Amino acid sequence: MKEKFENIADIYGTPVYVYFEDILLKRAKKVKEVFEDLNFLPTVAVKANNNPALLKILEEMGFGADILGEGELLACTLAGISPDKIVWNGNGKTFEQKEYMIKNKVKYVNVDSFEEFNYLWKEENNIELFLRVNPDIDAKTHPYISTGLKKHKFGMSFTQAEDLLKKYSERISGFHLHIGSQITEVLPFKEALEKTYELAKKYNIRKINIGGGWGIKYKSENELDLNILRKELLPTLKNFDLIINEIGRFIFAPAGFLLTKVVMVKKTETKTFVVTESGMNHLIRPALYGAYHEIEVLDKSGPVEKVDVVGPLCESGDFLAKDIELNLPKIGDLIVVKNAGAYGFSMANNYNGTTQPAEVLVKKDGSLKLIRKKQKVEELFSSCII
Ligand code: LLP
Asked: Which residues bind substrate (predicted)?
C-alpha cells in the first residue's frame, strides 16, 4: 500500500481521497448477498459517497440508489442508475421537488410524515409510496446519527401511519424504516422490523424498505454481523414481496482513504501537534461526532509519540485525531486516514476558503483513475456577484 499511496501523491498531488475498487466490490457483494434469495433490491445511500464513478461500479452490480434531492439524482443519472431503482428520501420535500422526481420517473418515495402525505401525496401519480414509520427504538449509536426514537425528527408514529392506511390504503405500497447509522448490534434492527410487521400484517402491506445503518469497525467495536442479521430478520422478511435496503457506510467506508501531507510538526509545553493539509474541511467526522479514524504515517522511521493530528483551519475543533500514538512525521511526510470512504468527501466543505481534494480510484488491476479533479481556488467564487 505504501508505494501505491506514494505513487498517487506523486501523480495527483495531495490531499486526495483514494478508493480501492477491490474493497468496494467485496463490501457491495456482502450487502447484495444478504437477502439474495428474496425479492431484494439493494440500494446505495448516495449521501455517503456521491462520486458517479463509484456509483457506476455499484450500478453494474445491480444496485439502485437512495437519494435526498435533485443533486443526488443527478449523480445517479451520471452513473447510469435507472430511476426505477431509485428511492427518494427526506423530511423536507417540496412541491417543486416532487414534480421534478415525477418528471424524472423516480419509482419510490419514503413519505416522512403524516403532514407530508397530506401535502404532497394524496393525488394519484406513478411514484410508489412507502410510509416511514418511527418505531421508537434506541439504535445505541451517536445521538446525531440516531433516528428511530420518538424525539427524533424522522418518520411518523404507528398511529399516524394507521390513520393514513385507513383512508388511503390503495395508495400506500410499503413501509420504510431507518433507525440510525453505525449500528453494530442486530437487536435494534430486529425489534424495529418486528414492530413494523405487526402493522403491515393488519393492512396487508407487502413491501418493506429496511433502511441502512449497518455499522463497521472503526476502532474497538465489532462490525455488524451480517450472518446474524440475516438469521434474525429472515423469518419476518419472508412475509414481504419486496425488500429494499439503503446502505452507505458499510459499502464505502473501508474502501476509502484520505491521503494528505504534513505541513508542520509543532510542540507546545503540553502537546505535540501534527498539522496536516486536511482538517474538518476535508473530513468533518472527528470534529462533528468525535469520531475515531485510524491514522498511519507512511514513513515509519520516526519515534512513536502521543500526538494530536490537526488541520490548518482557525478553530480548535479542527482535528482529525486526538492523543493517538504515531510515528512522529516530518514536514512533507504523507499520512493516510482510514475508513474515510463514507461521509468523507460527501461532507467536505470550503471553510476558510480552502479547496476540496481530488478523488482517485485504484482499479481492480491496480491501475489508477482520477475520478474527481482537485478543486481550484479560482472556482471558489465563481457563483458570487460583486
Ligand atoms: N437511509 C436513510 C434514510 C438515511 O438517512 C441514511 C443515512 C441511510 C439510509 C444510510 O445509512 P448508512 O448505511 O450509511 O449508515 N454523517 C454521518 C452519518 C449520517 C447518516 C445519515 N443517514 C456520519 O458521518 O457518521
From this structure: 249, 285, 289, 315, 343
Domains of the chain plus CATH, in order, are 2-17+254-373 (2.40.37.10), 82-247 (3.20.20.10)
Residue nearest to atom 7 of ligand 1 (CA): 181
Residue 148: its pLDDT value, please?
84
List residues forming the annotated binding site for pyridoxal 5'-phosphate. 213, 246-249, 343
- Give catalytic residues, as residue numbers: 314
Asked if residue 184 has its Cβ within 6 Å of ligand 1, the reply is no
Question: Measured between alpha carbons, how far is 162 from 385 in angstroms, rounded to an integer?
Answer: 50
How many angstroms separate the alpha carbon of residue 50 from the centre of ligand 1? 13
Dihedral, CA of residue 6, residue 12, residue 16 and residue 21, to nearest 10: -80
Closest ligand 1 atom to residue 284 Cα is: 24
- How does pLDDT run across 245-290, given as a tens digit for each residue? 999 999 999 999 999 999 999 999 999 999 999 999 999 999 999 9
Q: Which ligand 1 atom sits closest to the C-alpha of 147?
A: 5
Which residue's CA lies nearest to atom 14 of ligand 1?
A: 248
Each residue's pLDDT tens digit, 336-373: 999 999 999 999 999 999 999 999 999 999 999 999 99
pTM of the predicted protein model: 0.97
Under 8 Å between Cβ of 260 and 15: yes
Q: What parts of the chain have a pLDDT lower than 50?
A: none
Residue nearest to atom 24 of ligand 1 (CA): 343
Look at the alpha carbons of 318, 320, 321, 327 in this order and tell me if their dihedral is positive or negative: negative
